[in-house]
Amino acid sequence: MRKFVLLIFGIIVLVLVLFISYRYYFVFGRGVKAGELNFFVQKGYIFKTYEGRLIQTGYRSKQPGSLQSNEFEFSVVDEKVAQKLMSSSGKLVELHYKEYLGAIPWRGFSPFIVDSIVAITNQQNIQTIP
Q1: How far apart are CA 25 and CA 21, in angstroms?
Q2: Of 124, 125, 121, 112, nearest to 36 (Cα)?
Q3: Alpha-carbon gap, residue 37 to 123, rounded angstroms
Q4: Which residues of the chain have pLDDT under 50?
Q5: How far is CA 17 from the centre of its chain?
Q6: Which residues pair with 95 in a beta bridge?
Q7: Maximum Cα–Cα distance for the chain, whole Å?
Q8: What is the three-state SS of the chain?
Q9: Which region, left, alpha or beta, applies to residue 58 given φ > 0 means left and ψ of -120 to 50 means alpha?
Q10: What pTM does this model have?
Q11: Each residue of 42-78: pLDDT tens digit?
Q12: How far from 108 is each of 8, 25, 52, 73, 81, CA to CA, in Å?
């Protein structure tokens, strides 16, 4: 009877470990997002994490003749990437990210984790066509 209880307990622990690793550590997707860096802050009560928001423009709105902006909220774990983004608020940035199925407190509030910066561009360099 004792071996049966230990076997059931071991199976439950194994299933729980597999679920947690799939949910919080499996990389579901990778990609690049580009837009204007709206804000980038370090915040948190216990775990100080870096959080940011990218404003992507140019998506068609349901109303003709208008544009709709799309926000991309993300977290950053790497200190070097965070320091570069701290001085890039208001600039156009291209960020490479990993998407997880869930967020964990010490990694950030978002399931989107930026791991590198592809490009940073000043908005003054962009010309608009009338």
Answers
A1: 5
A2: 121
A3: 11
A4: 127-130
A5: 24
A6: 33, 117
A7: 81
A8: CHHHHHHHHHHHHHHHHHHHHHHHHCEEEEEEEEEEEEEEEEECCCCCEEEEEEEEEEEECCCCCCEEEEEEEEEECCHHHHHHHHCCCCCEEEEEEEEECCCCCCCCCCCEEEEEEEEEECHHHCCCCC
A9: left
A10: 0.79
A11: 999 999 999 999 998 765 566 666 656 689 999 999 9
A12: 34, 13, 10, 11, 14
Strand-pair category, 92-100 with 27-43: antiparallel
Under 8 Å between Cβ of 88 and 37: yes
Round to whole Å and give the CA distance between 17 and 23: 10
Do 48 and 127 touch, CB atoms closer than 8 A?
no
Amino acid at position 105, single letter: P
Residue type, 57: T
Tokens of 76: 């950053």
Strand partners, 71: 55
Which two tokens mark 34? Answer: 């580009």
